[in-house]
Amino acid sequence: MLRVLLVVALILVPQLASGAEVDIVVTYRLISSKRMILDTGETEDSYGKEPVGYITYGPDGRLMVIIAFSDRPKPESLDKMTDHDRTSLFRTMLAYGGTYTFHGNRIEHHIDVSWNELWTGTTIIRDIRRDGDRLVYTTKPAPSQPMERSV
């Protein structure tokens, strides 16, 4: 088991002016995500070099997140998709929804639905800071399994 620190950088969509205070009610696009193995200082891309992802914070206090790894496998067709194809696709994405509580420099995601039932009913807490037109989310160090992209 590794102890890792996850850093995710998101870029704001154009609705916000670049000098504005963080207005969390907007959609953000993922631009990068790195993991640092604390024992070695080694860093790696969490979801590949060019992941695709979005997080939307609504004015009603709800959020939705979807992230897909870069270089995901693409099955030949729906009718020829195998269980191995489905497993590979599942392992190279994440998605969840729920409510959020924003504290200015910290955000809590209270998950009511998730692609991974282990997350459903839990709360994810991230430190958050502004870096120019980007928001940077950081986790507290935590145990983690090595990343696996395929089966």
Q: What does the model show?
A:
The chain is mainly β. It has a single domain (2-144), classed as NlpE, N-terminal domain (Lipocalin, Beta Barrel). It is 6% helix and 49% strand. The protein is built from one helix and ten strands. It has an eight-stranded antiparallel beta barrel. The longest helix has 9 residues, at 83-91. Mean pLDDT is 84; it is low at 12-21.
Mean pLDDT across the residues is 84
Q: Which spans of ≥5 residues are poorly predicted at pLDDT below 50?
A: 12-21
CATH architecture: Beta Barrel
**Radius of gyration from CA coordinates:** 16 Å
- At the fourth level of CATH, the homologous superfamily is NlpE, N-terminal domain
CATH class assignment? Mainly Beta
Write down the CATH topology.
Lipocalin
Topology:
Blueprint: E1 2-12, E2 27-37, E3 43-45, E4 52-57, E5 62-68, H1 83-91, E6 93-102, E7 106-114, E8 123-131, E9 134-138, E10 142-144
What distinguishing features does this structure have?
mainly beta; Lipocalin; eight-stranded antiparallel barrel; 6% helix
How would you concisely characterize the structure shown here?
The protein has 151 residues and is mainly beta.
